[in-house]
Specification:
Blueprint lengths: L10 E8 L5 E8 L5 E7 L6 E3 L5 E3 L2 H11 L7 H17 L4 E3 H15 L1 H11 L5 H13 L1
Parallel strand pairs: 4-6
Antiparallel strand pairs: 1-2, 2-3, 4-5
Helix pairs in contact: 1-2, 1-4, 2-3, 3-4, 4-5
């Protein structure tokens, strides 16, 4: 690892521990040349995931898009940021566990719907209204009835 201060390649690890997310390792390093210390993070390299959109366009997977949709659905609901992050982590874990290079956006939406249903009923209905693109009140009401019957 190259030192960010003097660009020397003579550095060594002086401390290593799991990072806060438990998905990476935090390493404290020291440069043998200048003696300065710096931190690096080591993370498992995942295969790049391509999302197939409804119009058949393809784009690279972006966690922030799931996050934005879930946050919008949970707006002004009594749901902690920790619960929201946990939900998004679960969705991401399920997506990457498939070990596929491409996934349809509606599959991601279904996974989010399954997870958000257990979190909050109002957030579920909000997310469903956008995800399922309800065309009229009747389709919206039929989704509500399905939820109430369970």
């Amino acid at each position: 690892m190259k030192c960010p201060f003097c660009s020397s390649e003579n550095t060594r690890v002086i401390d290593s521990r799991p990072a806060d997310d438990n998905n990476s390792i935090r390493r404290r390093r020291m440069c043998d040349e200048c003696g300065k210390r710096f931190t690096t993070y080591e993370k498992v390299e995942t295969i790049p995931l391509i999302v197939i959109k409804k119009d058949n366009n393809r784009e690279q997977y972006d966690r922030a898009k799931i996050e934005a949709g879930v946050l919008r659905a949970c707006h002004k609901r009594p749901i902690s940021a920790n619960d929201i992050n946990k939900l998004i982590d679960e969705v991401e874990t399920e997506i990457f566990a498939r070990e596929e290079k491409e996934i349809a956006s509606d599959e991601i939406g279904s996974i989010v719907m399954d997870k958000i249903k257990d979190l909050d009923d109002v957030a579920y209905v909000r997310f469903a209204s956008v995800y399922r693109e309800f065309k009229d009140v009747n389709t919206f009401m039929s989704e509500l009835k399905k939820m109430l019957d369970k």
